[in-house]
Hints:
Cofactor: Zn(2+)
Protein name: NAD(P)-dependent alcohol dehydrogenase
Transmembrane segments: 160-180, 192-217
Helix content: 10-25%
Shape: globular
Number of helices: 10
Number of strands: 17
Domain Enoyl reductase (ER): 9-360
Structural class: alpha/beta
Radius of gyration: 20 Å
Pfam family, one: ADH_N
Largest sheet: 7 strands, mixed
Strand content: 25-35%
CATH architecture of the largest domain: Alpha-Beta Complex
Amino acid sequence: xxxxxxxxxxxxxxxxxxxxxxxxxxxxxxxxxxxxxxxxxxxxxxxxxxxxxxxxxxxxxxxxxxxxxxxxxxxxxxxxxxxxxxxxxxxxxxxxxxxxxxxxxxxxxxxxxxxxxxxxxxxxxxxxxxxxxxxxxxxxxxxxxxxxxxxxxxxxxxxxxxxxxxxxxxxxxxxxxxxxxxxxxxxxxxxxxxxxxxxxxxxxxxxxxxxxxxxxxxxxxxxxxxxxxxxxxxxxxxxxxxxxxxxxxxxxxxxxxxxxxxxxxxxxxxxxxxxxxxxxxxxxxxxxxxxxxxxxxxxxxxxxxxxxxxxxxxxxxxxxxxxxxxxxxxxxxxxxxxxxxxxxxxxxxxxxxxxxxxxxxx
Length: 362
């Protein structure tokens, strides 16, 4: 099977949209999906900054959504014609997977970031027969088609705008899940979100949907304006009195804070803004040490990492689409679509902050 995909051949070069070949149909427990749209996540772009860790050449993309074309074996309940949102890969049988925590799968890094399942290595090549890295996050969805494990696909209502749903499998899932799952925020709670990008704004929308008071912190006025539109109070980050301003807006301190920036100064500010026994969750990868200032972790405050919003995608994605139908999670307002051929323009706009969530349309 031949189709177009965006191939990244080196950590420095642009994507090349070219013909690729899938050499076999779906095996047991797999599905072939025709991609309707795939979100561009900063994890895709971070491959360049972690050069040498994720194998190349590869087809990236891990926020895909599409229509099932073919199924393999009897290990799936999905059928051709089903509309699905694709999410991250997991083994399905380790302690975390069996405990409804697939984002903490023992094999998460190997399956999603560093090579995928070994049995897929020879199945996906370029037009000349050169090997491409096995499935990125179980998907490699910057393409017209993707072969994925059926357990990573979530059936959705065919009346939904399928081409826009892919980011519900990762970026929006992470932000909303942090608030709704990790924090279990509700009425009367206060949630501070540091960084009003795709993950942060999804967290803001989820906090508002849950009845919590949301505060967004960012350096970009246009992002803060979006946060206000979604019901948050907005604070400009570049000021030395940020903890005082947060405490002033939250009645003495926030119960929950979510950092999406990885910035050590902002993380310390967030800790200082918490009320006693407040929680700070980190979703951004830290690329340097995190020096904590004196007193930031006293009075029962807690600091912890959150992966994929602590979500079970098969439960969380329908919850988010239900909130969208009710007008309480307007994630579509964060999306700008691009033809797959414009993948490099989408990357440039994403890196420059001109778009919150690019979605590529094959």
